[in-house]
UniProtKB/TrEMBL annotation:
Belongs to the TMEM45 family. This is Uncharacterized protein. It is a multi-pass membrane protein. Its main location: membrane. The chain crosses the membrane at residues 6-29, 49-68, 80-103, 115-135, 147-166, 173-193, 230-249. The lineage of its organism: Eukaryota, Viridiplantae, Streptophyta, Embryophyta, Tracheophyta. Keywords: Membrane, Transmembrane, Transmembrane helix. The keyword Calcium does not apply. GO terms for cellular component: membrane. It is found in: Membrane. It comes from Ceratopteris richardii. InterPro entries: DUF716 (IPR006904).
């Protein structure tokens, strides 16, 4: 693993963007489920393209910061090559978000909204591949497990993007995509704490001079892996509760239609002749 800055630099933006998408998607679906159409970005109240601008600038800052770290390592070493892979991934994301910004704000491309999800799907696919390549040493089991989970989360985000490019009217896929972004953000924060912070480093593990994290004995390694798997389950439960709460709060706003799984209440204050009623059969009683 390259000597990167703590992964928390990307966690907070991802979590904030995912919550913003979840709220906007829930509001749109609550107003009209039949007219719902997933969006890769949502306009801000006073700055329409503020989300795209903020995401692009954040990626540029992360790439510049990461570039100084990568080129400060030993030239031609494995650490530098792995760092260059991650730097190219950031540049790829920058190009994608720049293309989306130009496409949405100008008439230069006039690409459909669904094409944005296709671009994002390829971006997360690249992230998944880079995450797998970032830790390939089987002796570093704890580190390898952390990056495998990140690769799986990035691959899941890519899958939801491809599904939205194919079927953008699905609210469930849209909210799942937002949740996957939040889960990626929280897991990046967890990796930054577990792999780089001495306070959160599992017992029996230590940092190496080349930037890797290694456990002393096999028992400590397997214990650290089990701990990361447990933390992943906790992250999933927390994200699920937060997104269910965000979805429920959006339906408390005025103008949203509450949906029921069974029968709908019928307003009886209107005209009686407008209600379609079935004639009840007459029952003959013989004394």
């Amino acid at each position: 693993m390259a000597p990167l800055p703590p992964y928390s630099y990307a966690s907070v933006p991802l979590i904030l963007v995912s919550l913003w998408h979840a709220i906007c998607s829930s509001n749109s679906y609550g107003r009209s489920s039949t007219l719902f159409h997933a969006r890769s970005w949502h306009p801000l109240p006073r700055l329409r393209y503020g989300e795209l601008l903020a995401e692009t600038l954040a990626l540029v800052a992360a790439a510049v910061y990461h570039g100084f770290t990568v080129f400060g390592t030993q030239s031609g070493s494995e650490t530098q090559i792995l760092g260059l892979q991650q730097l190219v991934m950031l540049v790829f994301f920058i190009v994608v978000f720049f293309l989306i910004l130009v496409n949405e704000s100008t008439l230069a491309f006039s690409l459909p909204q669904d094409f944005n999800f296709l671009l994002l799907g390829f971006s997360f696919s690249v992230e998944s591949f880079v995450a797998v390549c970032s830790a390939t040493d089987p002796n570093l089991l704890f580190e390898l497990e952390s990056f495998r989970i990140l690769a799986a989360l990035a691959g899941f985000s890519a899958l939801t993007c491809f599904l939205l490019a194919w079927k953008p009217v699905s609210f469930m896929v849209s909210i799942t995509f937002s949740a996957s972004l939040a889960l990626q953000g929280s897991w990046l924060l967890q990796m930054g704490l577990s792999l780089y912070s001495d306070e959160f480093l599992p017992e029996g593990c230590h940092h190496l001079s080349n930037g890797h994290t290694q456990c002393d004995i096999a028992v400590a390694d397997h214990r650290a892996v089990a701990l990361m798997d447990l933390l992943l389950i906790i992250h999933i439960i927390c994200i699920l509760l937060v997104f269910v709460a965000a979805y429920g709060i959006s339906y408390r706003k005025p103008g949203h239609t509450r949906r029921h799984s069974g029968y709908e209440f019928v307003d009886g204050n209107g005209e009686v002749d407008q209600l379609q009623m079935r004639q009840l059969p007459t029952k003959v009683v013989i004394d």
